[in-house]
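Q: What would this chain look like folded?
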Amino acid sequence: MEPVARPVLVRPELIDLPETEAPGSKPASGLTVTAVYHLSEAGRKASLLAGGDGHAVQRITVEVPANRLHLVSVNGHGIARLKLRPRYELDAEQQVMCIDMAPIYDQPPTIDELLRQAARNHQLERAYHAKRTIARDERSDTDRVRRTEIALAFLADKSQRALVHPSPTPQRCYLATRYGHLRFDRVVDTGPARGVPKEALRRFRADVKANRERRARERAEHVRLRDERWTTMTAWIDEHGTLDQKARLAARLLPQ
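A: My prediction, written as structure tokens:
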């Protein structure tokens, strides 16, 4: 079964922008966060000309209103940062790319520009993860169908065997397939795939028992042939052997 791609539409024109406050309105309480961005060489020159430090990595504090806190991430140490890294961009085919790097500017950005970038990141991040979720679900469906087909073929063909290293157990086993070694687990799998470990273990134990019986028969045959050779040799030595050969035979020092 071939998965059907379901594209995720991204409309940059719908990306949230910072809301402008009405004249005379009281600003909502917000959160002071850190914004980290990079400056190109041109941006570092512009920073020095504007009286800045000219560093490639810039860290500034930004006041984010309470209604824009979805643009902020807080780590386990309680450090709040504006969502600028990783950044998300659209490629030539309008597919969302994840770039593990802060944005680079040729001019020191304003607070509004940083907030717009964080809003764009937030919107594209949702599209990025939505597409990955769809792709993961499609892979899961394809994998489930594939495992079901392999399980049905294994259960129907009595000559197939699971890998003996590691050996099958009541809970799991491994099959060698054209897709590589696949693990089947009674706890995780569903449908026909769930019955593969039990059947693989039954066949494995049957093979072990058959091999044990075959080796026992081979050993019995070897003992019988050895006894026949010894009886024949003893009769010949008794009739035709010298006294030295008879003495060595009695001491079991005469090679057969």
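The chain has a mean pLDDT of 86.
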